[in-house]
Write a structure and sequence with these properties.
Elements lengths: L3 E5 L11 H13 L3 E4 L5 H13 L2 H4 L2 E3 L6 H10 L2 E5 L2 H8 L4 E5 L4 H4 L18 E4 L2 E5 L21 H4 L3 H11 L4
Parallel strand pairs: 1-2, 1-4, 2-3, 4-5, 5-7
Antiparallel strand pairs: 6-7
Length: 190
């Protein structure tokens, strides 16, 4: 059976989003390494649209190898999907916490929000705090948190404009190559 990676690009608020072109780059790389990609999302209209926008950037051959599960799974079904995944990549959102709880190798992208408050706890961690406030890459157990560059990270604001619909430059500048490097350190692609 082909290993699969669950990719969850949709946060509740825009300031936790990673750029569409970065998701395109990452998904294309995952497929080139032999992964089946399952693109997950909530049933919210904005999340379904986000997945559609990402898939529209992929070439036809790559897009054919992506399963768009946007709005199609209940939480228990998402848990089953995550438990079988070789890898999960997502933003700071509830499904990221579910992936970590399912003991799936989890890579999560953080910008304005502090991982010390909102990072998904790795299974079996005992202690007061698994994460540092600021580190470009930190791995505890099977969870890797990546943060973008910038002295302001994490700013604890709603993005650069301190509004829910703002972008976060730190996430815009978090390169797909940093995510790929983290994947290569966590799992050996097929």
């Amino acid at each position: 059976m082909q290993p699969y990676a669950v990719v969850h690009p949709g946060p509740l608020t825009a300031y936790k989003r990673w750029p569409l072109a970065h998701w395109q780059h990452l998904i294309t790389w995952l497929i080139s390494k032999g992964f089946q990609v399952v693109l997950s999302a909530s049933p919210a209209k904005q999340d379904i649209q986000l997945n559609h926008d990402i898939i529209s950037l992929l070439n036809d051959e790559t897009a054919e190898k992506v399963i768009n599960a946007a709005g199609k799974l209940s939480i228990p079904q998402a848990g089953t999907l995550l438990r079988g995944a070789a890898l999960y990549i997502g933003v700071d959102t509830s499904i990221t916490h579910l992936a970590a709880a399912c003991n799936t190798p989890t890579i999560t992208l953080f910008g304005a929000t502090p991982p010390t408050n909102f990072g998904p706890w790795p299974n079996g961690f005992i202690g007061e705090q698994p994460y540092q406030l600021r580190a470009r890459s930190q791995t505890v157990g099977n969870v890797t948190i990546l943060q973008g560059p910038g002295e302001c990270v994490p700013c604890r604001k709603a993005g650069c404009l301190d509004r829910a619909d703002s972008n976060s430059e730190c996430l815009d500048l978090l390169e797909p190559t940093q995510v790929i490097t983290a994947i290569e350190q966590v799992i050996k692609p097929a």
